[in-house]
Amino acid sequence: MAIKTVNSRILLEMLDMGAKNLAADCEYVNSINVFPIPDGDTGTNMKSTISGGVREGKNLINEPIGVFSLKFSRASVLSARGNSGVILSQFFKGLSMGLDGKDEVDIKGFAEAMKSGTAKAYSVVSNPTEGTMLTVMREAGEKACSLLKDGDDLEKYLNDYVEEAKASLSRTPELLPTLKKAGVVDSGGAGFLRIAEGMLKYLRGEEIGDVFEEIAATQTPVSVGAFDADSELTFGYCTEFILQLQNKKVNTKTFELKTITDFLDSVGGNSVVAFKDDDIIKVHVHTFDPGKVLSEFRKYGEYLTIKIENMNLQHSENEEFFKDMTLDPLKPQEVKERKPYATVVVAAGEGVKDAFLSMGVDEVVSGGQTMNTSTGDFLETFDKLNADNIIVYPNNSNIKMAAGVAAESYKKANVIVMPTRSISEGYSAVTMLDTVNENRDEMIASQKEVIDNVGTLEVTYSIRKTNVNGIDIDEGDFICIYNGDLVSADKSRYNAIIKALDKIEDFGDKQVVTAFLGKDADGEEFERISEEMKKRNPFIEVGEIDGKQDVYSYIIGIE
Fold this sequence. Notes:
The longest helix is centred in the first third of the chain and has 22 residues, at 154-175. This protein is 45% helix and 19% strand. 46% of the residues are buried. The strands form five sheets. The chain has a six-stranded mixed beta sheet with strand order 15-14-11-18-16-17, sandwiched between helices. The chain has a four-stranded antiparallel beta sheet with strand order 4-5-3-6. The chain has a four-stranded parallel beta sheet with strand order 8-7-9-10, with helices on both faces. It folds into four domains: 5-203, DhaL domain (Serine Threonine Protein Phosphatase 5, Tetratricopeptide repeat); 237-319, Alpha-Beta Plaits (2-Layer Sandwich); 339-438, Rossmann fold, CATH 3.40.50; 455-558, 2-Layer Sandwich (Hypothetical Protein Tm841, Chain: A,domain 3), CATH 3.30.1180. The termini are far apart. It has 559 residues and is of the alpha+beta class.
C-alpha cells in the first residue's frame, strides 16, 4: 500500500489494527513479567489504554490529523492503566504534539512525530531505565528515521521501524540483568512491538480475526419485560456524556465546571461525577429528565458520546442492592461540608476494602494485581470528594504512575500521592494518619516514615518454570516475595513461608504483623505460621484480616 501522506483515517486504521494485534497476543505479553506469578497485566493495561483512544478515534476520522491525534491521546490518557499503559498514553500524547496543527503529514513528518512520542514518554519517567519499552520506542524511531529516504512510503518506514523494534526487544535482557536472569524480554516492549506490527499489517493488507473485546460496552443489554406499558419510572435515567466545548459558544479555556454541576444540582440531579480536561467535559448523572440536561449543555458545545439507561431496568436486575438502599437514588442529597482532607485507597478483595472503610477512608477504588486502576478512575473518584487535600494510597508500584498523572491534571484540590507499594504499606499508613495535629508537610513526612518501616511478604504461586535470584522454581511451586524480591519457593506453601521468614534478617526487631488472608488461605495453616513467627520473635504481635483477595494467599505486613 504505497502511502506517501498520513491522514486521520489512515492513522486510525493503523492504530486499530495495532490494538487488535496486541489483543491477539495479550496473554503472552502478560505472561512474560519478571516474576513468574499469575498477576501479569502489562498486555491488559496496554490494551485498555489504546482501546480508549481507538473508541474515541472512530468518531474523528474526518478531522485534521492534529485534532484527531490530540483527542485520541486524551482518551488514551483517561484509559491508561499501570505504568506500561501510562507510558503508552504519553507516547500518544507526544505523537499528537508532533502532529499539532497539521491536516495531514508526509512520511518524514510522521516519523518525526513518532520520535516526539518517544521523547514525551521518557519525560514522565523520573529515572528512565534502559532495557524497557522506552528503549524499544527510542531505538526503533531513531533507526527508522536514519534509513528514511526521499520517496519512501509509509510501509517502508514502518517496516524499518518494526525490524529495529524486534532487534531492540531482543537486546533488552542484555540491558536489564533481571530480565536475563528470568529468561524473558521486557513485557512492555513486547506489547509496544505488537502494536507496531499491527500497524504494519494494516499497510500490507493483512487481516486479524475478531479478537479485540471492547473494554467497556456502550450499551447495556435490555431486560425484556422489566419495564412495560403499565410500569412507572421510579428511578430515572443514568445519563453519561462527553461534551466538546466550542469556541463559538463559550471561552473554552476559562469555562468553569461549576457551571455544569450547579445546573445539575438545580434540576435535582444526583450521583453527579464530572470533570474537565482542557475543552472536553465528561459527566455522569442520575436524572428524571435527561432531555432537559442535554438541551441545556448544548449551549456550550456539542456531544461526542451520549449514553442513557433506564435505572428501573438496573433495579430489576439488582433488586437486592436497591432493597438495601436507605436513600432514594434520585433524591437530592445533602452536600457534604468541605473538609481539609479526604482519603482514597486502591484495594482488591472485599475484606481488604472493608478494612480500609472501617478506618474512615473516604473512597476505596477497585484495583490491584491483574486490573490496575486507570487515570480516569482516579479523576472520577476525586470528583466525588469535597476536600482541600486528597491523599491517595495506590498500594501498588504499577498504579502509582496513573495516580500521579491524575493528581497533576486535577485542579479542584491538592492531591498527594503516597508512595505505597502494597496493601500492607497502605494499611499501616492509614492507621497512623494524623490530619488534625500535624501540618501538611509534617503529615507527609510522618506517613513516609511509616511506609518505610513496613516490610511486605506476599505469598503466591509460579505459572512457569524459571530461576530467579538463584532459586530454581517449577511451575505450580509456591513462592514468597519480600519487599519486591523473590526470596523462597517450595512445593509446600507452609515451607515456602518458613524459608522466607528465615531470610528476613531483622525479623527479631519487628513488633507487629498484620496478615491479609486471601480466598485460598488456610486459617489453620496461618496459626502454625503465627507460632513460627513467635518462636523467632516472642514479643511480636500477630493479627489477621480476612482480605478475600485473589492471586495472593497471604499479604503479610511486618513492622
